[in-house]
Amino acid sequence: MSELLNFNYPPEPATDRVTLFADVILPLPLPKLYTYRIPFEMNDSVMVGARVIVQFGGKRVLSCIVADIHENAPADYQAKYVLDVLDDTPIVTGPQLKLFKWIADYYMCTLGEVINAGLPSALKLSSESRIQLHPQYNPEEDEIIFAPQEEKIIFALQHNQALTFTEVGNLLQLKSYHKFIKSLIQKEAIIIYEQVSDKFSPKVVKKVRLTEHFVQEEGMLEELFNQLTPQPKQLDILLNYLQKVPVHQDINLNYKGLEKSELSKNPHLSASSINTLIKKGVLEQFDQIVSRFPIDNLQQQLPMALSEHQLQAKDEILGLFKEKDTVLLHGVTGSGKTEVYIDLIKHALEAGGQVLYLLPEIALTAQIVTRLLKVFGEKLGVYHSKFSDNERAEVWQGILSGRFQVVVGVRSSIFLPFHNLSLIIVDEEHEASYKQYDPAPRYNARETALVMANLQGTKTLLGSATPSIESYYNCKTGRWGLVTMSKRFGQAQLPDIELIDIRDAQRRKAMNSHFSSQLLTAIEERLQREEQVILFQNRRGYAPFISCDECSWIPKCKFCAVSLSYHKYNNELRCHYCGYHERMPHDCPACGATTLKSMGFGTEKVEDELKLLLPKAEVQRMDLDTTKTKNSYQQIIADFENGKTNVLVGTQMVTKGLDFENVSLVGILNADTVINFPDYRAHERAYQLFVQVSGRAGRKGKPGTVLIQTRDPLQPIFRKVRNNDYESLYEHEIEERLRFGYPPFVRMIRITVKHAEEETSENAAIVLAKDLVDRLGKQQVLGPEVPYIFKIRNLFLNEIHIKLPRANTNLKAAKDQLAQAIFNLRLLPVFKNIRIVADVDPM
Length: 843
Fold this sequence. Notes:
This protein is an alpha/beta fold. It has 28 helices and 36 strands. The chain folds into 7 domains: 2-90, no CATH class; 128-198, Arc Repressor Mutant, subunit A (Orthogonal Bundle), CATH 1.10.10; 212-281, no CATH class; 308-485, Rossmann fold (3-Layer(aba) Sandwich), CATH 3.40.50.300; 496-540 and 603-735, 3-Layer(aba) Sandwich (Rossmann fold); 543-600, no CATH class; 746-840, CATH 3.30.70.600. It is globular and about 90 Å long. GO terms for molecular function: 3'-5' DNA helicase activity; ATP binding; ATP hydrolysis activity; DNA binding; zinc ion binding.
């Protein structure tokens, strides 16, 4: 790459040959595409959708995606040359580029931000400054005086082709080493260049096999045994190999060989003896590229036969697909929607298409992936953030090559390079997890999937037991098709739901900590019957905050306007917004008292107390704290499925789509925290949460019970949950939203103004709001107002809400006005450091 950076392309002779230019998408938040000149010899190798390497700025080298190729030189600057081409074929398809452009336009961000979010890191290139000896520097002839540190660098470069800046710092054992690099550049002893390396590399395993002539030539294997008899350790290795690779039955097995680790992990076999056999030429070692998604241990099976009810739903969906592009499958929990999905995927694959199966949470993928792998085997790819960069890049390449025809993944899966998509399934379509909050693009994967389907001419199936109000409205108005599954699969019945008034229980002294006696008795009964229990609490950690019993001091985050949550396992106080943490104090910093008490409770405290109250219970917790590692979800779910644990305590992760046949009791410990929330979606979300978590009980024929602890049992939402009355919820919510102007009748954009100084943030929001009122009208602009949490990561927040009626509103023109108002605000010197975030369709 040094040659590329230091090479000046000679002026091209005046001929008739075409000079081409490429507009590229740099992985930077730039408002426009940047144009580079394509060297003539690369004219045939640069393609739209492929990656090229360019120099941006002084020394920065980046990989980027070619968005367009044309013959128009930029008018405002002299185009630099493309340095290199990375791909023989495009890694981003035409429909993808159109989708990326739509995401940037609709969600008011840049194409660079979309590319950054969309491409796996392993397909993006990193550049790092390096130094090498100057080509014209001759240590024998040049009489240059060097400092001792400079001599160290020169000596190292004489024995190494190049050094990174980090390596120079380690060599000198100095933090401030840049002055020596600068001095050597001025003395023309070294030059700086950028080395770009492609991060993606396939997974390679080292294997061994018998050298060919021992297998092919008659009598050679017997002769080998005789030769190795005096060397028992080497003979053991040969015997072990032949046991695992029976070449006497089929000599072709030898070609595949055996992983070297299979031999070396045996404690009775010597690793040095294996290497000796390789040196002798008895074994040969070779590398083999293997998949990161092995399915060898999974026995493939045919999908389950659909019940009459499921067949009817499938036929209705296919019938509606003839008229409509989008269908909503509204099926009660446990109705067997997943089996319908699998049958529809099979139908799509038989027609030669690709399928994207979207899930809202990584927690759901563990169970569903196992089921799908058994049906679709090697055709299935999995894509989510807990996978490594290389694993995600392998799925990306596998879709391009046609290896993966079905992909199951979370919201980022909508960026994948499908080219023959015939079906998109969005399971649990109501989930807020489909919305990306930070950083940009702040997209909603459900809405983006609908646009993706439109661009690729495919169909979309949305599924949920508790659809979003917006989705159900689209069905009611005839825009989408609607299919309903109102019965559970097989003999299973919907669970009985009972309310427990914890105020009354406290008066009767029937509460043990945060558990009513009724709930504890019910848990004990299930454990005696060897049945399982799920407990839902909508807070993680041990306690939401601690407080001094004497002076009421409460520890606050240094960077956010929130109290610190207590996590007992790590004995620390932690901010759930910025991650700041500190040790739990022994006494009150304000008054010195030692009477510090935890207030409220989270999942960690529920787990802790339940182990004390029911010592025979095997309790496990599933929340953000216990699922940080790649396979933690899978392990927790596997332990629960296999009966190693019988009580699962969790946050919203346990409410979504999990299928456990032995769960007969679900407990909701504090329902009021879900309902009493200042948001127009509060009742909709509460209903969805309660119904979804209730749906985990009684799924395989065993009677299920749900116990909900609340201080307000007369709350109307509970009646709707107990009666599974979604229609009543929908009618009430849609009437309220029409009356007060909320989605689906308006589009909303939330503008958040951020600054390190509270007054500057407030003044900027006032100026911006006034400009927006002038541009869009007073009825469309609400605020500014200070949000409930007014400071996050040392920045003070102010919010402006824009409501744009769907009828008679030019959305693009309104967004252009908003963008211009933000641009004008930033031109004012006093607001030059202001940060502004536009969130389209906030959740």
